[in-house]
Amino acid sequence: MKPAAAVHVELSFSTLPGVALTCAECAAADIENASATDATGDLGAKISAMGKGAQLTFARAPTGAAHVSYDLRASSDLLAPPRAVLVSDDRFRAFGESLLLLPSESARMSITVSIDGSQLPAPLSASSLGLGASRTRRGWVDGLRSSMFVAGSLGTTIMDTGIEHDESAWLGYTAFDPRSVTAEIAGMRSLLRETFRGEVADHMVFFISQSRAAASVLGRGNFAVAYVTPDEPWSAALRVAMTKHLVSEWVGGEARIADANGQPAVWFGSGVALFYAAHALAHAGLLAPEDARELVSTLLSAQATLPAHSGTPADVLARQTAQGALYAARISALLRTRAARAGPRAPTADPHEAKIERLDDVLISLVDEARASGAQEGMRASGARLLRSAAFIDIVAHVLGEDERRVFASVFDKGGPVALPDNALGPCFSQRRALHAEMSLGFDLDATLESSDRVVVGLVPGGSAAKAGLLSTDIIVASNVRPGRADVPATLTVQRGQEKKTLTFVPRGKEHAGFAFVRVPGLTDSQCGNVL
Fold first, then answer.
1. How far apart, in whole angstroms, are the C-alpha atoms of residue 57 and residue 48?
2. Mean of the per-residue pLDDT values for the chain?
3. Which of 114, 135, 132, 138 has the alpha carbon at shortest distance from 9?
């Protein structure tokens, strides 16, 4: 779709350490009427392309404070990718990296952002800085680059306990009450902060109603965005995804483990964080036993169907995440069984032996180690060095035995499967061999939705979508697809000539052998005990 509106942006800087500003995801052709001035006059602003982004350069170095303004053409397509700048009907949304020209250096400075939203029919506004048109927060430039801005027919709420401050804004209709969900998120955030002895900080949640794709959560620092379809309930999947964002402040945030290449390990920062989010929700009474079973079964399916050493980047990340989550489930179950067999424990002089009884204790130890290393080097949390790749298994092996190192290596060094104990989900579920099907839509949904005309891309003859009647000439109007779930029907609404059609099909592909958990007949939820 062609851009049909423009956003006017003004930026005021207390100082600028160079002669250029950049925007990683702004197309240079979409920026118009750029100007820049300082106390002595015009700076001679010039816009040019920089890779996929844009760069604004000055003819001379600014002196003191500087002011920059420009217009950015936006999309009016409600099905535009979530990171696109959108102006449509009564709504505006944008992320900082698609909207703001900022210094490339990560530094602290005073920056004022002004966005003209006067032409919107309902110009209420919010940003990741908080509710209202004018909010200030001290931080780093890279934090503003990853910020979010919304305006339009917003609903808003504030949860303030006097200690913690949580805000939310929602755009469009949702099938759930965002106020009660905000309260739930605030409660989980408080619980996790107490667990990890974290600092008190404000938090913002956006609920964006859209018909583009299945519900999802995007977490960034002090805020999160929940994309939901209008009929989507606040499901277990959304609840876990949102809590994973909260957990990631510590697991994958303060505590980060290096992989074999010296980069943050996906299995830990994404996988362990995912399982611990579900673990924390279950212990808070917010995740039903059946929801826990479904999550673990989905992870086991990903382990069985995704390639261990090849595949697309998305497949590799998905498998690493599943492996990390399943290994955390294994450790949690083994520690739980060990504690139950040992009963009340006598005091011991060994600090590890006295401390590590639950998965929580393992993660708290890692966070404490990360804080200690960061304090020694005088680094802020986001800049602290990575922990040793063996940091996690060192703690686990000390408690569960050295043989666990071999298991760990077989999974994360050799790509082998994680074996869960039969009692990993407690007495209500038993483990069985099962066949898991690959999720195969039979066309490239992401490429289709990101194309300018949304005409079907990559339709596979004889594939799931083709068998359901999808044509290569169809235009995707709306989609509801559960990523990674070959057993959940996918629904597509397409424009075909002058009429719209709705196609529903199960995206089931090739089958692979694996394991799954099934419910034990006759046991109620109250008899399930500690599921995760």
1. 8
2. 87
3. 114
